[in-house]
Amino acid sequence: MEDLHLSSNNFGGVVPAALAASPALTHILASRFQPVHWGIPDRVQPGEGERVVTGLSLAGMNLTRTIPAAVGDLKNLTWLDLSYNNLSGAFPAWSRALCSGSLTSPTTPSTTAPLPRDIGSLSPAMEHLNLSSNSFSGGVPSAVAALPALRSLILHTNLFTGVYPAEAISNLSRLESLTLAYNVFALAPVPVAFAPG
């Protein structure tokens, strides 16, 4: 099995660890799916090798508990969707693979925080990053330009302010889609850097 889609269901109980261990699995979509517990082991066991999962969607999961540390062993992620979670910046430290630790929802809907500056340390293979419909505030860190493979960057429906780091973003030579709508960026001309090259 290469693709596992569990989105928009009412499953409960434990998601078996065996689902995460499938050697052929490349995409996991669990959007708007809230199991009682993800039965994923804390770490990939020695000798198992790296997971080949290249896509992970946890959109609309109301993330309030620790993401299994095994997610940090997904060394080959090229797209990550964390939209619709009310994330407000309570990220763990990013690793070169993805992350470990916990992603939490704010205690109240008004809780906001900046997008972590070390977001640039995500996997350099990351092509699609969707952080829309959360509660991020402040400026967009220029470190996002440290993701050279990015083809789409989706940041709509947050509380970003200030001037967007257009010069840094213009260095993303592979970027095809940039979504900034429904934020509160400072009034300024559309940057020339956004024009097709």
Note the beta-strand portion. Answer: 15-25%
Number of domains: 1
Number of strands: 12
CATH architecture: Alpha-Beta Horseshoe
Specify the CATH homologous superfamily. Ribonuclease Inhibitor
The main sheet comes to:
7 strands, parallel
What is the share of helical residues? under 10%
Tell me the overall shape: globular
Strand order, largest beta sheet: 1-3-5-6-8-10-12
- Briefly note the structural class of the backbone: mainly beta
Tell me the distance between the termini.
Answer: 41 Å
Topology (SSEs and partners):
Layout: E1 3-5, E2 14-15, H1 17-21, E3 27-29, E4 37-38, E5 55-57, E6 79-81, E7 113-114, E8 128-130, E9 136-138, E10 152-154, E11 159-160, H2 166-169, E12 177-179
Parallel strand pairs: 1-3, 2-4, 3-5, 5-6, 6-8, 7-9, 8-10, 9-11, 10-12
Organism: Oryza glumipatula
Protein name: Leucine-rich repeat-containing N-terminal plant-type domain-containing protein
Pfam families: LRR_1
Give a short summary of the structure.
The protein is mainly beta and 197 residues long. 5% of the residues lie in helices and 16% in strands.
Structure description:
With 197 residues, the protein is mainly beta. The chain has one domain (1-197): Leucine-rich repeat, LRR (right-handed beta-alpha superhelix) (Alpha-Beta Horseshoe). Helices cover 5% and strands 16% of the residues. It is globular, with a radius of gyration of 17 Å. The relative contact order is 0.12. This is Leucine-rich repeat-containing N-terminal plant-type domain-containing protein. Pfam families: LRR_1 (PF00560).
